[in-house]
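hey can u check if this looks right to u? its 247 residues, i copy pasted from the old doc so theres a chance i mangled smth
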Amino acid sequence: MRALALFAAVVLAAGPALAGRPVTLKADTADSDGLVTLGDLFDGAGGAAGVPVAARQGSTVAIDALAVQSVARRAGLDWPNTEGFRTIVVHAGLAGPSAAAGSAHGNVEVLTYARSLSAGEIVEPSDLVWAKAAAAPTDAPSDAEAVIGQVAKRPLREGAAVATRDVGAAQVVKKGDMVTVTYEADGISLALQGMAMGAAGVGETLAVQNTVSKKVVSSVVTGPGQAVVGPQADELKASRSRRYAAR
């Protein structure tokens, strides 16, 4: 009952503002002093431009779009959010028309990190959120599933747009590990022992040096201490390429 009463109070309080001044989200949401205001977010904010929305402590801050919409309504502004944005990412910079004009791509919805990740951490579903940004990385994934379960290659900052180059498969083979490389085709099955010349995750290419002949073969990792060459490796590489193309 308390939740219902609170919801009703919010709706009633927001009611008069629904007919407020129409505003549009800027093509580049930026603030210059660490205090994000309605004027930093919207064109046409008028006298409500100085109303604070959030504080930015780092280089970016991710703000819930519903919260922004609520603040705007209370200030007499009407932002319908027809694009359906869930989060707005605000970065440090010179806010205003000049910044918007300098944005080559305009605001787009991109996948961003909901929290900061350390190198080696596995990306969980709760670590990702769709947000509004000035531009998307050239290798931005279009599907969160392409990133979930991958491992951060380097420290990743909360609010930053996700790029495919940020993550990779969890390493199951380290440099110097002994690896069994197998070949199977047309009823023929061969295997050799070799030493990993680098580190790799499942589905990644790994150079392995034959412990007997000292020749180096290019293989594809299938698990801890396991790799394949030949048709199986070709199929795994093709499957990996199709996956990344789908992003």
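The longest strand covers residues 188-196.
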